[in-house]
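Exercise 7. Given the encoded structure of a 262-residue chain, write a plausible sequence.
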């Protein structure tokens, strides 16, 4: 399965310009054998938290419709990062998955909100449990940034049979070490591919880590970027997942009846 992952330097509070950035980037990097495109967290607005409600009112569903149009135009599946969505009085940080026909096949609202960024003051945490979605018949999952620190939900997805976990983020450089270690840990402990898209640059006084990467089920980094804007292009060998799960059968070795409920 052929992947293209965007490490983006976005324009804070400017969805229209960010859509143009993504469209130009995809035009420049598209190939006929491409299966999945991955975008980062909050790519349309960045963390303009105080302005999000007004931006969402003005922009409406344009960014979601934009993702759908890209899917159809390029005949590609999109793990469309996440965008701010106004739902009644609540604003959700929502990941959107679109297939080649431009259909929305899955959404996920970030459930863990970052206290260090005052997210709970401006955003509402997702109400629903994590669920599996499929692209090209492959079981997959998605989480958003801070969710990476909560292995419970990732193991939940693994037990539902996912082979690929996507992590879309705006992860800061100050905690880059955590990012790199946790991505590999999640891949190793769940024996699956981890595909991570982060942002680049400095926004609102925060320097971001970049370091978008793809980690295989053995915990080896397939490809990785530094802090610059760029893209990852890689082919995921999905046969590795059942092979490694057979060689080291951690799921068969589980004894959940002995685990304390959290």
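Solution.
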């Amino acid at each position: 399965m052929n992947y293209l992952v965007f490490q983006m330097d976005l324009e804070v509070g400017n969805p229209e310009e960010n859509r143009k950035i993504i469209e130009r980037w995809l035009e420049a990097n598209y190939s006929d054998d491409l299966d999945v495109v991955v975008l980062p967290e909050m790519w349309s607005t960045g963390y303009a938290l105080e302005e999000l409600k007004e931006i969402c009112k003005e922009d409406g569903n344009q960014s979601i419709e934009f993702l759908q149009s890209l899917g159809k135009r390029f005949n590609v599946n999109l793990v469309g990062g996440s965008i701010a969505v106004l739902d009644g009085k609540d604003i959700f940080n929502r990941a959107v998955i679109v297939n080649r026909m431009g259909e929305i096949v899955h959404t996920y609202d970030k459930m863990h909100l970052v206290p260090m960024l005052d997210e709970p003051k401006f955003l509402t945490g997702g109400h629903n449990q994590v669920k599996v979605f499929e692209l090209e018949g492959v079981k997959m999952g998605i989480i958003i940034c801070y969710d990476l620190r909560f292995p419970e939900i990732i193991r939940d997805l693994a037990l539902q049979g996912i082979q690929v976990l996507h992590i879309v983020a705006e992860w800061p450089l100050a905690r880059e070490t955590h990012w790199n270690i946790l991505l590999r840990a999640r891949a190793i402990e769940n024996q699956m591919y981890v595909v991570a898209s982060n942002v680049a640059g400095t926004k609102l006084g925060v320097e971001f880590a970049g370091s978008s990467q793809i980690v295989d089920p053995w915990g080896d980094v397939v490809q990785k970027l530094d802090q610059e804007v760029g893209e990852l292009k890689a082919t995921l060998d999905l046969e590795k997942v059942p092979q490694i799960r057979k060689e080291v059968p951690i799921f068969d070795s589980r004894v959940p009846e002995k685990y304390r409920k959290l």
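Remark. DSSP finds eight helices and 14 strands in the chain. Students should compare their own answers with the one above.
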